[in-house]
């Protein structure tokens, strides 16, 4: 049984721990929080004997765990991951794995130098129904246009409008639309098609310096992927793949519950396979497999680095600058 630690005690961390326990490969053995009482409160439902830390260096140097799930603010992913990797801990880090491509490349170098696994927690790629996209793509014939939409009004946007400075819209935390909502769009594109030949991006920036919403065109040899992302508006548009023989719809790309295909002159066909309610279970299982094999997944590494290169370039084109970029 792999001993799991967590950094961060929010809802997504709780969700991941539930998923990790569900795959029966992990036990929760350590929790970090700046508030030890909060760490103990979080651990109680899962393992009241879990070791609780309020010092990251002390945690990294302990032998209380084998692997750690990092769900801190984006700006802390790099430093916390490197600290854990250098101390021989396997790391699954919430997306995005780093603030920029320079950090991401260094993180994977450290992981390989210390013979430990670094894995970006992008769940969508590992969902059973996401695999149906590639499986049924040939039905569409020659592919020409792909549009990936993810626009969701942030519950923290009103706080920003009221004059507060929530992490969601704060460049100090390496945040904004492309690094949050938009990440699912970019990462799904790279998971399906690899890296594009060229990128053209635009965005509307808030006074804080991050993007509220934006678009990007990823150009491939014979087709293009248009990405639309927003944290200040909602959309009900599906992701759409257009081929010469028909079109494929995915209602919500990040959860990818099913795939609809409409071939020319035919009725809509829905493709769906059973999928667990806690969709983080699949990434937890893939993480465990890498640790047991003693080798990180090169395909996952390539996708993570590709996405980081793209989001770094999108930010360069749209003028979103983080402190970590200097």
From TrEMBL:
It comes from the Bacteria. SUPFAM superfamilies: Glyceraldehyde-3-phosphate dehydrogenase-like, C-terminal domain (SSF55347), NAD(P)-binding Rossmann-fold domains (SSF51735). InterPro entries: Gfo/Idh/MocA-like_OxRdtase_N (IPR000683), GFO_IDH_MocA-like_dom (IPR055170), NAD(P)-bd_dom_sf (IPR036291). Coiled coil: none annotated. Transmembrane segments: none annotated. Residues 139-246 form the GFO/IDH/MocA-like oxidoreductase domain. Residues 3-121 form the Gfo/Idh/MocA-like oxidoreductase N-terminal domain. GO terms for molecular function: nucleotide binding. This is Gfo/Idh/MocA family oxidoreductase. It comes from Vibrio algicola.
